[in-house]
Amino acid sequence: MVSASTVHINLWGRDDECDAIRRLLDRDAGGALLFHGPPGSGRTALLAYARQVAGDRRLLTAAGLADEAGLPYAGLHRLLDPVLDADTALPVRQRRLLRRALGGDGCP
């Protein structure tokens, strides 16, 4: 059996993308990257690489679904759902707006 911790991912021909991932993870301020492309373009491999080099940092990922393209904030909901219980760390105004948007009440 192979443990995920022993698997090392090498992405041939993806040096620019891997550099962008490492630069983002080296920042103290956080940030975001968007991977887009057709099926088979390597998005999942890039996310696996990001998880590998992230170490103990929190990494949020979400996959968009074509069926949800017309739903407001669907991607944001998929991205933040695993950490919504931590919304108390946000200032009250931002927390209310986030809850409204993700609760289907809309957002200004």
Question: Describe it for me?
Answer:
The protein is 39% helix and 0% strand. The protein is mainly α and 108 residues long. The protein has 2 domains: 61 residues, no CATH class; 46 residues, no CATH class. α1 runs parallel beside α2. The chain is globular and about 45 Å long.
Protein topology:
Blueprint: H1 15-26, H2 43-54, H3 74-80, H4 92-102
Task: Summarize this structure as a short list of keywords or feature phrases.
2 domains; 4 helices
Briefly characterize the structure.
This protein has 108 residues and is mainly α. The protein is 39% helix and 0% strand.
Number of domains: 2
Helix content: 25-40%
Give the number of helices: 4
Distance between the termini: 51 Å
Name the shape in a single word.
Answer: globular
- Helices and strands, in N-to-C order? HHHH
Class derived from helix and strand content? mainly alpha
| Cα-based radius of gyration, to the nearest Å | 16 Å
Strand content: under 5%
Quote the average pLDDT.
82
Low-confidence stretches: none
Number of strands: 0
